């Protein structure tokens, strides 16, 4: 009997170490960032059984076999649609500055999506102005309204938007709404989904979360895009979810969420619509590609109004926005201003920012003083010392949770959209960014960033180095897991 127990124990230990070896080998051959691999290896060795389970659930970009196969089948028709944009009059690469031209080349090579001229952009910074503008556009819609959001939170003016959509559907406008199942879970528990469906609105949950689905695909991948397209003529995107800040997370202790949205008209709106069409087809298997932009010549002496639409996520060249960020930072000649609610940069980004500051470029990063994620806040602090020592200016915004995601390079190129400067946005979630070369828009964004700086406290290196030992220990602890946050 004793020999039997010995054999069983030996088999169990041998099987366990074989599993550990297999998972270790899998992590290594993925050839991802060293920090990510190291963090996962640390987890599976510190938490033997829990670490293995965590890796199997969250360790890879597994979107599910059916979804992956469908995505592969979709590439050719969508690439043909995107390729058609290069024959339009609004595609003028020789008009572009070096900033825009390099991004355009990168995005064509990786996505097939070119930068286009003939756009009119407005930067909307007040949530009630944003929601009122949206309601007005919905009320004037004639044919179609397409929504895509991470969070729809009921209450206040968000309910007025819902009523406007229902009224539009009742008038015969075709309304499609994509909402992330996790981000909008409170919305799905209200009467609004049934009211919408009864009015003819097509409402679809994206990336549903359930214990069963954990065995099919990674369950923490999120649809983080914010897209609105009306009649294929008017588009919105930016950092703001479909929420009224007076009703959203008011007891979180971080203040109101501070956001922006971009309202856009012109050639790039159908491109936004095509991204929505892609996401809609992935979820529903129904294809409805939008009409191409009107082939309107670009006036030879018109001011630059070039927009590059950049989607990313599993199945859609998920690191493209990361590449655009790096390229933009390395192109900078005089200044870089960044706003982000969550700051956990990749090794490449932290090196690029430090290199820029050490070359004498004025680098400013604005983050909220208080975060709604304690782990992210502590991990973020672990990067402060090396940035401050390199000469990067760090500002902590005092007037709420600064949720605006923006980058301005040399006051000429703007990057604005849904992407946080953290690993989740850069590598995991489905995101969207606009690269904009338009003086009026970029000037407005620079002014807004300066307002944020005026409402912030700059971190002083000497004071920061005097923080207590226990804070340093907590920062370093969460730093080890920062590649996974």
Automatic annotation (TrEMBL):
Q: Which parts of the chain span the membrane according to its record?
A: 6-29, 36-58
Q: So which residues are the signal peptide here?
A: none
Give every PLD phosphodiesterase domain span: 219-246, 398-425
Q: What is its EC number?
A: 2.7.8.-
Q: How does it sit in the membrane?
A: Multi-pass membrane protein
Keyword Zinc-finger assigned to the entry: answer is no
Q: Which reaction does it catalyse?
A: 2 a 1,2-diacyl-sn-glycero-3-phospho-(1'-sn-glycerol) = a cardiolipin + glycerol
Against InterPro entries, the record matches this protein to: Cardiolipin_synthase (IPR022924), CL_synthase_A (IPR030840), CLS_N (IPR027379), PLD-like_dom (IPR025202), PLipase_D/transphosphatidylase (IPR001736)
SMART domains in the record, alphabetically?
PLDc
Where is this gene product found?
Cell membrane
**Summary of the function given for this chain in its UniProt record:** Catalyzes the reversible phosphatidyl group transfer from one phosphatidylglycerol molecule to another to form cardiolipin (CL) (diphosphatidylglycerol) and glycerol.
Give the family this protein belongs to, as stated in its UniProt record: Belongs to the phospholipase D family. Cardiolipin synthase subfamily. ClsA sub-subfamily.
- Please give the name of this protein: Cardiolipin synthase A
The species this protein belongs to is Shewanella surugensis
Q: Which gene encodes it?
A: cls
